[in-house]
Amino acid sequence: MNSAAILLVLLSAVVHTTWSVIAKRAPKTAAFYCITIFLGLLMYAPVCVPHVAANRGLLAAWPWFGTSGLFLGVYYVLMYRTYRKADISLAYPLLRVSPIFSTAWAIAFLREEVTALALCGILATVLGCMMLPLRSLRLGRAGVSFRHYANPVYAMAFAAALVTSVYIVVDKHAMTAFNPAGGARTAIDYVWLEMAVCCIVLLVFAVRDALSSAGGREAEGGALRPLRTALGPILLIAPMLLGAYVLVVAALAIPGSRAAYVGAFRLVSVVLTVVAGVVILKERFGTVRIAAALVIFAGLVMIGIG
């Protein structure tokens, strides 16, 4: 994998981990993410809007950033609902098992070739993510059992991972078709448009929750009241939400980079988030999670070498 692409993905992982930890303590609602992304769009608007308006070729990519934005919005909904029910050191890794799907899509639709070592690395990173929820590696009810995954938390997490794999592959196709030179400038504008669509999707969910609350029923996302105390997290997360994914799409835009590898290498954020969950949020961390983190790290090394 290209060293520049690796650097961009590693930097993205640090940014993504940072805002994820902040978001764990913020309101877990569609309104929170809608407002945060809208503010981020405003922050980047002076840079992106003039260039987007002048770039008719990029505007022609609307089916791609429209599709990605739609799936990205659904991902955020699934993500914050998962965070409501589980520790970040448990939920986040499950949200990031998308490489097992994106690799399949990349091979089937983008005709990417994946080396045997890199494929083993991808499978290892996913295996590590799957190990994290376990209390023991022994077979049986207390150890490795389907019961650990047969519940709504894991269903939402895996659905989010599937959604992630789709928009990663769509964005790689868009960068290949509309940004063949691999320029970061086009990648930034593309993500801005994608996030604008995502914001609209989240607005729909936020309005739905508000109407449910006004109708006398408890909205799943709660009332808008918690947002009054969330100004700090919103201001902190707003530039990072867009910035983290700009780095990923910039990596996808580099000629020769592959969606399967980029998607898998993003899992370095899993290790960072598990550590942050334990150190900052004081979540439990047992020997199984240590082993899982090591398996993920080994997988990333194999991907880098492969």
SSE layout and pairing:
Blueprint: H1 3-24, H2 30-54, H3 56-59, H4 62-85, H5 88-95, H6 99-109, H7 116-131, H8 152-178, H9 184-214, H10 231-253, H11 259-265, H12 268-279, H13 287-305
Helix pairs in contact: 1-10, 1-12, 2-9, 2-10, 4-5, 4-8, 4-9, 5-8, 5-12, 6-8, 6-11, 7-11, 7-13, 9-10, 12-13
Quick gist of this model?
This protein has 306 residues and is an all-alpha fold. Helix content is 75%, strand content 0%. It has helices at residues 3-24, 30-54, 56-59, 62-85, 88-95, 99-109, 116-131, 152-178, 184-214, 231-253, 259-265, 268-279, 287-305.
Structural overview:
This protein is mainly α and 306 residues long. It has one domain (3-305). Helices cover 75% and strands 0% of the residues. The chain has helices at 3-24, 30-54, 56-59, 62-85, 88-95, 99-109, 116-131, 152-178, 184-214, 231-253, 259-265, 268-279, 287-305. Helix 7 packs parallel to helix 11 (259-265). The longest helix has 31 residues, at 184-214. The radius of gyration is 19 Å and the shape is globular.
